[in-house]
Amino acid sequence: MLVNIDSKISFFRELISCCHDLNYWIYNKDFEVMSSNSTDEQLLSSLLTANVNTKVLKEENYNKSLPVILTNQLDLMWILHHDKNILGEWEFIHVIGPAFYADVSSSVIEKTLEQMNFSFNIKSIAKDVLEKLPVISTSRMFEYSLMLHYTLTGEKISIYENQHLIKPTYRERTLIKNDWHGTWAAEQELLKIIEDGNLNYRETHAKLVLTGEQGKLSVNNPIRHYKNLVIIFTALCTRAAIRGGLSPETAYTTSDFYIQDVETCSTIPELINVNRNMQDDFVKKVHQIKNLQGDVSLQIRECCNFIQLNITEKISISTLASKVGYAENYLSKKFKREMGQKITEYISATKIDYAKNLLSTSELSIQEIAEKLSFGTQSYFCENFKKYVGVTAVEYRNQRSIRKP
Question: Which of 65, 236, 286, 313 has its CA 20 to 30 A from that of 15?
Answer without folding.
Answer: 65
